[in-house]
Amino acid sequence: MKRVLCFGIVVLDRIYEVETLPEGDAKYTASGYRESGGGVAGTAAVAVAKLGGHAAYMGAVGDDTAGRWLAAEMSGLGVELDLLQQITNARTPNACALVAPDGARCLIVDRGTVKPAPVAMELAFAKADALLVDHRFPNLAAALLAAAPREIPRVLDAEGGDPDALRQLVALAQYPIFSNSGLKLCTGEDDPLGGLKRVSAPQARCVAVTLGAAGSLWLVDGQAHNVPTPHVLARDTTGCGDVFHGAVALALAEGKQPLEAARFATAAAALKARNGGGWRGMPERQAVETLILEYGSTLT
Ligand SMILES: Nc1ncnc2c1ncn2[C@@H]1O[C@H](COP(=O)(O)OP(=O)(O)O)[C@@H](O)[C@H]1O
Ligand SMILES: [Mg+2]
User: Exposed, middle or buried, 104 (CB in 10 Å: 0-12/13-18/19+)?
Assistant: First the structure.
């Protein structure tokens, strides 16, 4: 079983279903409510564990209800938490989402006050077969990318944050994989292929951008490759990008080539879109393998 070290943010999402999104000063009644874990690295770690890898999450929560909830949930879903820091008197990141029946959302994000402290690199990379970082704590993420053993794949979920900090991370990752908005932020380009060509990452093995239901675009050895998604009835695309990045990191840890990793991640993220259900709706390995077989020819 390959071990993927996932460093970055974890968030408690509180999701209220409402008939209409709020307008102005009024009281609303929810028709449904659920809680789920969220956050880029946290969700990627849960995905890795469910896909049959060994996920080690590295990051921080506060010593509050949300932090305890997240630690229990991650551990219950099979994520190793030896590198999780529980910080006294800090607030765990959390989000409140109001979701209407047509899928329209109103999102309030509290980034919390947690800040993970540096960890001894030997400890972090003990037995790691791949590293995945997000942009949330850029200084520590940069230190990890720089210190990671050269033989392990180093993946960056280049989704957002401060543009200069993001560019610094991009310049350190072996696999900088952008979201569409992250690529625009980093390069100023609207066109995905134009953006990928402008990315400054001479050390990278390849660069890629995810494009929602349109799949992803990869630039490998100067060649562009489209990786389309199989058609699924998407119930909820929250966390699809996080699952995609976790699955890429696991596939690379297992020795797959970049485009093969892309197809594996595409199938995993499509199943996440179909399943919905937050962390509890993570696809299993078997379902991903089956989808790849069914859609194999369309995914090349
Ligand atoms: N509606 C969908 N149907 C199938 N796959 C999807 C859908 N939305 C997203 N995905 C998959 O998830 C990946 C990441 O989604 P994207 O929206 O680009 O990232 P993020 O969630 O980070 O914004 C896509 O490249 C695609 O493979
Ligand atoms: Mg994302």
Answer: exposed
Does pLDDT of 299 surpass 60?
A: no
Say how many Å lie between the CA of residue 242 and the centre of ligand 2.
5
Q: What share of the chain is helix, strand, coil (3-state, %, to 5)?
A: 35, 25, 35
User: Which of 83, 132, 143, 137 has its CA nearest to residue 114?
Assistant: 137
> Quick one: pLDDT band at residue 175, thresholds 50, 70, 90?
very high
Would you say the CB of residue 155 lies under 6 angstroms from ligand 1? no
266 CB near ligand 1 (under 6 Å): yes
Percent of the chain with pLDDT over 90: 94
Whether domain 3-22+32-119+127-295 has CATH 3.90.79.10: the reply is no
Residue range 218-262, pLDDT digits in tens: 999 999 999 999 999 998 899 999 999 999 999 999 999 999 999
Q: Give the DSSP letter of residue 263.
A: H
244 lines ligand 1 (CB under 6 A): yes
Which residues, at least 6 apart from 131, have a Cβ–Cβ distance to it below 8 Å? Answer: 4, 5, 7, 125, 144, 145, 148, 152, 153, 154, 155, 249
Read off the DSSP letter of residue 175.
E
Q: Does residue 234's CB lie within 6 angstroms of at least one atom of ligand 1?
A: yes
Q: Is 53 helix (H, G, I), strand (E, B) or coil?
A: coil
Taking Cα atoms as reference points, which of 239, 186, 198 lies closest to residue 9?
Answer: 239
Q: Which of 4, 174, 154 is nearest to 79 (CA)?
A: 4
24: confidence class by pLDDT, cuts 50, 70, 90: confident
Q: Which residues surround ligand 2, an ion (CB under 5 A)?
A: 159, 179, 241
C-alpha dist (Å) from residue 7 to 83, 169, 182, 187, 228: 9, 13, 18, 24, 28
